[in-house]
Amino acid sequence: MELPNSKMVKHDGNNRRDRISELPDDVLMGILLFLPTEEAVLKTSFLSHRWKQLWESLPVSGFNFRVPMPVCCRGGHVKNLKDLRDGKYMTVEDMKRECSKFVKWVNCVLISHQGSTIDQLRVRFYLDKDSQRYIDKWIKIAMRKQVKKLELDFPSLLHRPSNAYYPFPQECFPGIEFITSLLVNVGVSDEAMEFVLSNCPMLETLLLKNSPLLIHAKVSGSSLRLKHLNISHSESIQTIEISAPNLVSFEYHKLRKVPFHIWYAPKLTELD
């Protein structure tokens, strides 16, 4: 006798009962907890509506969205790990399609998940200003769920003009005050940097990388909790000014030297 409402699946031409989906919710939740949340979505949601409902309420500490990245480029073509073995190149159009798939994946996970909080959100892919409305939505969702660590890593294989970089938003999304760590490889302007420092009172770590929009970096404020500052490979930067009472470490990496002034940093012990 079959259990009521048991699901039948077709396998090798035969109908067989889906015994996994008949397991109690707590057992299925245990299975999902062994998978990274991003994989739980991709590998189980298509099985049944019940699986989808379970992962949506899965308690998670954070999301890490990343895929194998292309390793080199040549003449408007990019070469990824698989194609590198096959000796084949992907065209820029191929990369655009991959970006579209990546955006849909992140959208699916973040919009569907019903958890009330996210400790960490990490997104790493070749995204730019063309994906701005989606990235803004991801940030808004994460901040609404009181994200503490936000990492946006959008490198560029080919030359990218400064106006094509994703510009970090200057908008007070609800929950922005909970950010403690911000690591970004995007377009951060002088105004955006000032906005972040003024509206993230809990911020302790700030890493800015490859931002062509940053010209005059100014870190100043008597109430800043910032402890760690890293500015690297932002080739347009001309000056750096620092006045941060709790700053412990400051790292600066660039091909050429620029004048920087540390007006006040009594706790600074690491300077590189």
From TrEMBL:
Name of this chain's protein: F-box domain-containing protein
Domain F-box: 17-54
InterPro entries cross-referenced by the UniProt entry: At1g61320/At1g61330-like (IPR053772), F-box-like_dom_sf (IPR036047), F-box_AtFBL13-like (IPR053781), F-box_dom (IPR001810), LRR_At1g61320_AtMIF1 (IPR055357)
Entries under SUPFAM superfamilies matching the protein: F-box domain, RNI-like
Any Pfam family matching the protein: LRR_At1g61320_AtMIF1
Organism: Gossypium stocksii
